[in-house]
Amino acid sequence: MVHKTPFLRSKFIDELSGKNVFFKCEHLQKTGSFKALGAFYAINILIDEKKSEFSVITHSSGNHGQALAWAAMQYGVPCTVVVPNDAPSSKLAAMRAYGATLVECDPIERKSTVAKLCSAAVYEFVDPHDDYRVMAGQGTVAMEFLEQVPHLDAILIPVGGGGLVSGIAVAVAELNPKIKVFCVEPEGKRLEDSLISGER
């Protein structure tokens, strides 16, 4: 149900970098991002494990919430998304269109709101980042990319919560450990400090 996304080239970027650069177009994936891969895989794993009806819950300001709502809708699984009250209206509209029930909260209370809801009802929590099912699903980006471009020397991955890079790093280590994996993050973020300290 997910798309096999294409890759694109740019002569300008090749000349600027002095490298052959390939762009994997995950913005053309279902719901507009790679998040659909992780959410869809997580729902499928839950279906296999539960063998009965269940509901899912997550917190998100946009892409993961859309992805989980879409994936849940494919199988008629009820989905609740805790959203910060400053989330973009377009993202909220998309989640509702995919059938999600939205619960708004203060941006810093997303996790605690999920915890309260889970204490009052039975939900399967699908974390946007720290969920091995989500990471595994997102890691399939690397599998598909290497089918399309087998001779890659390195993969550069934007880092937010870390789910995508975790999944890709594991997949690449298994498929071709010679490929280098680089994390790319906005200036001011301190992923390396987190890795060294073992804390977020």
TrEMBL record:
Report TM segments.
none
Q: Which cofactor does it need?
A: Mg(2+); Mn(2+); Ca(2+); pyridoxal 5'-phosphate
Decide whether keyword Magnesium is in the record: yes
Write one Gene Ontology MF term: pyridoxal phosphate binding
Q: Which Gene3D superfamilies match?
A: 3.40.50.1100
- Which PROSITE patterns does the protein's record reference? DEHYDRATASE_SER_THR
User: Which Pfam families does the UniProt entry name for this protein?
Assistant: PALP
Give the protein's biological function. Catalyzes the synthesis of D-serine from L-serine. D-serine is a key coagonist with glutamate at NMDA receptors. Has dehydratase activity towards both L-serine and D-serine.
InterPro entries the record matches: Ser/Thr_deHydtase_PyrdxlP-BS, TrpB-like_PALP, TrpB-like_PALP_sf
Which protein are we looking at?
Serine racemase
The EC number of this protein is 4.3.1.17, 4.3.1.18, 5.1.1.18
Q: Where is the Tryptophan synthase beta chain-like PALP domain?
A: 3-189
Q: Which family is annotated?
A: Belongs to the serine/threonine dehydratase family.
Which chemical reaction does it catalyze? L-serine = D-serine; L-serine = pyruvate + NH4(+); D-serine = pyruvate + NH4(+)
Q: Does the keyword Magnesium apply?
A: yes
